[in-house]
Design goal:
15 helices
Length: about 325
């Protein structure tokens, strides 16, 4: 009976929180579906190689409006690199995309409030520009893309089911919206199919985040939470930044987890370390990096993520000290 009571209580807490955020979830999913239906992200993506010195900025903007997470953006970025995109904007796209999306922003507004949502958006812009700028600096000092791959990747289309490099092979043609498009579906049906796909993808991360938050609130000692999220201790922030590196925490999951602690005075440094450090690094992405790229490329990517996260966390904490 005790176990049933606990499971029931956890379920009720989850339903209460999901009930509070679902309108923002629906709005964000609809915005992403509309962008994908209009194919705006594809139009910008195709033009990236033509923007020259502005490519880093354009790649950062594309990353922010793209609904792709860290695992989804990596194959796309590699395909753009093979298509001629320089390394600096490619790194901007790779770093910025997991940090923000239309659904991520609307949910952050509901979960954490406009102040935190806008701070997260600003952090995503900074991280994209920072990653691209630092990578460009290394390129001017001899870093060459052709020396970073462990092996030469086969030519061809990643969307081809027979593409020989399985780790990069895309299965998007199997998606519902692609099948609807292939059958000549009208734009409304395509939009609904893309909304369904986005809802399933985003929804599972919302559920994971809410479950983790509910369990933490019920079973993790309050003093541990205070030490990690409230104190603002630089060592705690550094430890939090390092701890989330191997975890597969998306922007949706991160804001859902922090939502349950919004009644606490979460330190700006700790909150931003979690919101940025978790989504920008993911174990599956690092696995692909180690498989396809030489160690120095992996070190560059991970270094940009960690250093950029700590800069963002420190700067955001400084706004509190300045009374902003």
């Amino acid at each position: 009976m005790a176990l049933f009571h606990e499971v029931s209580a956890v379920g009720q807490d989850m339903l209460a929180e999901i009930g509070a955020i679902w309108p923002y979830f629906a709005l964000g999913v609809a915005l992403e579906a509309w962008i994908r239906t209009k194919k705006w992200h594809l139009k910008i993506r195709r033009a990236l190689t033509r923007y020259g010195p502005w490519a880093v900025l354009v790649a950062t903007v594309l990353g922010i409006v793209s609904p792709l997470c860290a695992c989804g953006i990596l194959p796309l970025t590699i395909s753009l690199i093979l298509g001629g995109l320089p390394l600096a904007p490619a790194m901007s796209l790779l770093v910025a995309s997991p940090l923000m999306s239309p659904a991520g922003y609307t949910l952050a507004v509901k979960n954490l409030g406009p102040f935190w949502a806008n701070a997260e958006l600003a952090a995503a812009v900074f991280m994209g520009l920072f990653a691209g700028g630092v990578t460009h600096w290394f390129e001017t000092r001899g870093l060459r893309l052709e020396t970073l791959f462990r092996k030469e990747l086969p030519k061809g289309n990643f969307h081809d089911p027979d593409y020989p490099e399985e780790i990069l092979r895309c299965h998007c043609n199997e998606m519902l919206s692609k099948r609807v498009e292939a059958r000549g579906g009208n734009p409304v049906l395509v939009f609904l199919a893309k909304a369904w796909e986005g809802g399933v993808k985003v929804g599972k991360y919302v559920l994971i985040g809410v479950l983790i938050e509910v369990l933490a609130r019920r079973y993790v000692p309050n003093e541990w939470i205070d030490r990690l999220l409230v104190s603002g201790d630089p060592l705690a922030v550094l430890g939090l930044t390092l701890a989330v590196v191997p975890l597969h925490i998306t922007q949706i999951t991160a804001s859902a987890i922090l939502f349950g602690f919004s009644d606490l005075a979460i330190s700006r440094a700790a909150g931003m370390a979690f919101l940025v450090g978790g989504p920008v690094t993911a174990l599956p992405v690092m696995g692909v990096f180690l498989t396809l790229f030489k160690p120095r490329m992996f070190a560059l990517y991970l270094g940009l993520c960690l250093v950029g996260t700590l800069i963002v966390a420190t700067a955001f904490q400084a706004t509190a000290w300045l009374g902003i």
